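Need Carbohydrate ABC transporter ATP-binding protein (CUT1 family)'s 3D structure for a figure. Predict it.
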Amino acid sequence: MAKITLSNLKHSYLAEPRDRSEYALKEIDLDWNDGGAYALLGPSGCGKSTLLNIISGLLVPSEGKILFDDQDVTHLPPDKRNIAQVFQFPVIYDTMTVYDNLAFPLRNRGRGEDIVKSRVTAIAEMLEVTDMLDQKAAGLSPDNKQKISMGRGLVREDVNVVMFDEPLTVIDPHLKWKLRSKLKELHQRVNATMIYVTHDQTEALTFADQVVVMQEGEVVQIGTPVDLFERPAHTFVGHFIGSPGMNVLPCSVKDRQALFNGAPVLLEGAVPDDVSGQLEIGVRPEYVALGSSGIPATVTKVSDVGRHMVVECDAGGNRVNAIIKAPAPEKGASVHLKFLQAQTRLYVDGWLATQPEEVSA
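Structure prediction for Carbohydrate ABC transporter ATP-binding protein (CUT1 family):
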């Protein structure tokens, strides 16, 4: 296992990029500690796969360095980096047994059969596939094939990092939760450094201790799942994480007071001096309440999702979602919206601009 450092990393697929917009990755600095569970989260095209390929050695970055335990590996080929990778589609040999599939990475490196047997047996027990060891891989279900693919990545003890590239894409939805739980359990048991790449917020938040959220080649926030939900550093994070995502509403500022539709809105902290740019208020639907006073709105849609109701409202032409317990108002009803002050924030040009008020002792 290894600590992974990305230092001043940039990459463009053009030989001579002219400006920042022509870089697929825009100056990334990251430290991933030995033994940690991390996720790269973002939509298609945000740079996740480019970054993964650079870490694995399939791409050499245009600028910057990749360090494994402070050793520069920027120009080393993949086979010199001791990396295991699990892909979207299971990479296994159908004509081999499950045992031989799990044993292959070890035999390929000349390990003795006693070591092979010990490691294969241990990984098979962790994956709960011991009873399948003598079966040909061709007859396995898709989820079990992906288990074997994961096992091939975990069977070696000398890897610096195990990387998972959208590993549950082809798995049926009802099996994804089981495999996510198994992967989390495996990380806790083998204590390997793991990086999980996905566009699915549920996969990222349930697996990782730290999530790196990317947008258009940039890292917009790094934090725990709780950090990303409770305090988004950027409106993209607030919108991308959550179901539904954070309400992002246009506002103005007068005398250091935020105004939405002309009505004052209390924020978590003071508005910065001389604030300018694109001003927006961010508040998650979980922290929007319906009452007899507040910002006037009209209910446009009500969705019953089982655990709660999602009430979509129109407030001066702006959509505002509120998550409430039943009963919910009817479509077309006039309501008033109240935002929880401690969870209502000002964003300037997309970035968080307020800080919570300090509480006196």
